[in-house]
Amino acid sequence: MGRRIVPELSYRTVAVGNNAIKLSNGLNLLPDMALEEVDTVDVLMVPGGPGWKDAAQDADLIAFIRKWAPSATLCSLCTGSMILAAAGVLDGLAATTKCVVVPPEESPLEELGREYPDVRSTHALLVDNGSIITGGGVSLCIDTTFYLIAKRYGEAAAQEIARIMEYKAAYAANVARLPIVAGDTLSELKGRKRQDR
User: Fold this and answer.
1) What are the Cα distances from residue 103, in Å, to 80, 97, 124?
2) pTM metric for this prediction
3) What SS3 state is found at 169?
4) Segments of the chain scoring below 70 in pLDDT
5) Active site includes 78?
């Protein structure tokens, strides 16, 4: 849907190696390329999910994140922030992640604060640290992507994509119920009025 409104958007799926990756739901994902084949990165989106604990201990993946952190925009989705924290790129910053779980699971947001004391664990829709953006859990990944699109291509583009996805009401509701936080000051960015909600 995004490319209908912003045709210059392009995506590549990269992984450690070129082999298909079995997702937790049983589907297989074939990456476009292996980490070592990547020669340029504009935005590195790091997803979470049930495999985040293994990913956070994968030396090749951690090295890849560290390699691109100085020049690319890093954007974590859901528990992808735990992977960024493991790479050390969130040290000294505020960050958010998934917080709602089924007991007796521990909230990843609480775990982020406990396991990475140099990261300010923050309950928010997303935290924007400039070149590093961390998004909340599961469906909030959609909102984080809209935020990134709005930041790069304008709010009108994000709103139009939300409209054609039939997500506009959910987008507005999520922004209304959870703060968008500027990570450097931890001040909530209030009054993000959207004229065309």
Assistant:
1) 21, 17, 21
2) 0.91
3) helix
4) 184-197
5) yes
